[in-house]
Specification:
- By secondary structure, the protein is α/β, with parallel strands linked by helices.
- The chain folds into two domains: 112 residues, Alpha-Beta Complex (Aspartate Aminotransferase, domain 1), CATH 3.90.1150; 241 residues, Type I PLP-dependent aspartate aminotransferase-like (Major domain) (Aspartate Aminotransferase, domain 2, 3-Layer(aba) Sandwich), CATH 3.40.640.10.
- It is 41% helix and 15% strand.
- The protein contains twelve helices and 13 strands.
- The chain is globular, with a radius of gyration of 21 Å.
- Bound molecules: ligand 0PR.
- The site of ligand 0PR has 17 residues, from helix 4.
Length: 362
């Protein structure tokens, strides 16, 4: 087992992941609930109560203490469930959903599974979704639109307030994918409305296993009200509870417990400090990269930074051979970094020194 484990990248060499090393307290909570199964909540009542509390805390964090939802296996399940609820409520033949071109690939999975056409709206020059293109793509078969608050590639934030107005005007549902940004935006831009403060926002993905510092797996789907959750209900005849809303049946309570540990014992103020430090390190990375002649794609909005280079793939592959993980994006071709809490100033220094050597040798 140890031999296999040694083949895994250590987080101190991963600059491409939206996950991170959880706090020891989160790990302790995770282990405590390792045998609980939230697929049968009547038996694991304590775990279920914890999940209800987590949903209440995250709902309040997103400015709707009455939000309903559950802790998912990740952002993918949360996005699938949001679109599924929209489809089930609208009951239209050949439905479609309009997403930004920058949407995570989980929406392609959702479309495939649910039989929903996924229409992709253009981005503007700042890599935010172009509102007029979203409007152009909406028709009588559109059940919902999606805005991303913290895009996977660039950490950019779509104009959610405008999308909310458009959704109300066109009578379609609006889902906000803040799988990553949900635990970042409120700390960096507390006045920026991307959540249930906006009337059109019907559902939100916010993942504890990303910037929420919880253990894997822990995503979260929040709905504005019960109606959306009810649209997902299936009867569970042989269980004590009558119906189930989740996509998976047997499901862990570990993520629920680790999320609760973070939110309750470390708290939002602690998370805010973590985010601010990530942002400081991000700006340091930008400085160091620009010193090497790289150009940023956008000014970092959150702790994601991308740098244009035609040689992105070549550089990534050589870094990988030397034990470092960075990623590459297309349009524009660039190196992408996610500056998670495990990426410290020291990690950046070590990385830059390796990168300098890579650039001399490729
Ligand atoms: N929505 C957004 C905005 C995301 O960035 C992601 C994942 C998802 C949804 C889907 O979430 P799950 O992967 O939890 O289902 N974004 C990360 C990414 O593509 C996922 C990831 C994490 C990839 C760690 C690699 C990695 O090492 O970058």
């Amino acid at each position: 087992m140890d031999e296999f484990k040694r083949k895994d990248f250590p987080y101190s060499r991963i600059l491409s992941s939206m996950c991170t090393t959880p706090h020891p307290l989160a790990v302790k909570a995770h282990v405590k609930f390792i045998t609980s199964n939230l697929g049968d909540p009547a038996l694991f009542r304590g775990a279920k109560e914890l999940e209800d509390r987590v949903i209440e805390m995250l709902g309040s964090f997103m400015h709707n203490p009455k939000a309903r939802g559950y802790v998912t296996s990740g952002g993918t399940e949360a996005n699938i469930q949001a679109l599924r609820a929209f489809r089930n409520l609208k009951k239209l033949a050949n439905p479609n959903v309009v997403v930004p071109e920058s949407a995570h690939f989980s929406f392609d999975k959702a479309g495939d599974i649910l039989g929903i056409e996924i229409r992709k709206a253009r981005l503007d020059e700042d890599y935010r979704v172009d509102l007029s293109d979203v409007e152009r793509l909406i028709d009588e078969k559109t059940v919902g639109i999606v805005g991303i608050a913290g895009t996977t590639s660039l950490g950019q934030i779509d104009p959610i307030e405008d999308l909310s107005k458009l959704a109300l005007e066109k009578d379609v549902f609006l889902h906000v994918d803040s799988a990553f940004g949900g635990f970042v935006i409120p700390f960096l831009y507390p006045k920026l409305k991307f959540d249930f403060r906006l009337e059109g926002v019907c559902s939100i993905t916010i993942d504890p296993h990303k910037m929420g510092m919880a253990t894997i797996p822990a995503g979260c789907i929040l709905f504005r009200d019960e109606r959306f959750l009810k649209a997902l209900a299936v009867k569970t005849p042989y269980l004590i509870t009558e119906e189930q809303f989740s996509l998976t049946g047997t499901r862990p309570a570990t993520g629920v417990a680790s999320t609760y540990a973070v939110l309750k014992y470390l708290g939002f103020e602690w998370l805010k400090k973590v985010v601010k430090r990530c942002m400081d390190v991000t700006l340091y990375l930008v400085e160091e990269m620009e010193r090497l002649g790289f150009e940023r794609v956008i000014d970092p909005v959150m702790n994601v930074a991308c740098f244009k280079t035609e040689r992105a793939t070549e550089i990534r592959d050589e870094l990988y051979r030397r034990g470092w993980a960075v990623s590459v994006i297309e349009n524009p071709r660039a190196l992408r970094f996610v500056v998670m809490p495990h990426v410290t100033f020291r990690v950046i220094d070590e990385f830059i020194s390796t990168l300098k050597d890579v650039l001399r040798n490729i």
